[in-house]
Amino acid sequence: MNQELMWFDEGAGGVITAAGLSLAIQLIGCALAISYLAWVCIASYNEWGKEEISGGDMLITWFRSVAVLMVLLYLFTT
Known about the structure:
3 helices
């Protein structure tokens, strides 16, 4: 067991394990990040369909949201 896990176990009094809590946070965070990406893509597609934005603006929005997703997933899994 590494030192951080020992500190966590000592602070939690052995009641909470870091592995399960960390996995839960990662799963919830990743699900929220993927849901946000889907919402951004659908919203920009709808705006493009209403001719409120151009196709280039829609693609830029999609690429930005994918870049944010990659950063968030990296932060959640490390």
